[in-house]
Specification:
With 170 residues, the chain is of the alpha+beta class. It is built from seven helices and four strands, in the order ααβββαβαααα.
Length: 170
């Protein structure tokens, strides 16, 4: 890792939402991630690290990803967000790592701010990675569609559950 790295901005993959969902679910299987598993040990196993920003640090780096190579990347989180938000943010940044850096093939810097195709793709990835379709459908049925209960299964917010339900037509 070097501070002089010339980072590229992430470029959208151009994949459809269902394609991104499939990539995320396949990636979760490949790395042995199951719904409800902790993300930090996975990130470490992949060669990355999760760091929490301190008060008054550069707000633009909060919820960001820096990728130096396939075994060296950093996800930066705010010290002032909750566990559910952090969990989704880590999965979102992992989406950038997989979709936009080619699992470390490109040095990229993905920052928190923005609402473009790159960010949508990372959100789609995070949702499918944390809440895989087959398991999610079964969980929705088991809990009668109740967002709070479903959210507790995946340790995400009820809002994330609602968006996932909409995306899957539930």
């Amino acid at each position: 890792m070097t501070e002089m790295t010339a980072f590229m901005q992430p470029v959208a993959s151009g994949k459809t939402k269902p394609e991104v969902f499939q990539i995320a679910e396949s990636y979760a299987k490949r790395v042995g991630f199951l719904p409800g598993d902790r993300l930090e040990p996975l990130i470490e196993r992949l060669g990355g690290r999760v760091t929490y920003m301190k008060a008054f640090e550069n707000i633009e780096e909060d919820g960001s990803l820096l990728v130096w190579n396939s075994r060296d990347f950093e996800i930066k989180l705010s010290a002032f967000t909750g566990a559910e938000r952090d969990r989704f943010t880590i999965a979102h940044e992992l989406g950038h790592f997989v979709l936009h850096s080619g699992e470390g093939a490109k040095c990229i810097r993905a920052s928190r701010f923005g609402s473009d195709r790159v960010e949508w793709e990372a959100n789609w990835f995070a949702a499918a990675f944390l809440m895989p379709e087959h398991d999610f459908r079964a969980t929705c049925q088991y809990y009668g569609g109740h967002p709070q209960l479903i959210a507790s299964r995946y340790m995400v917010s009820p809002k994330a559950v609602e968006v996932r339900k909409q995306n899957l037509g539930l």
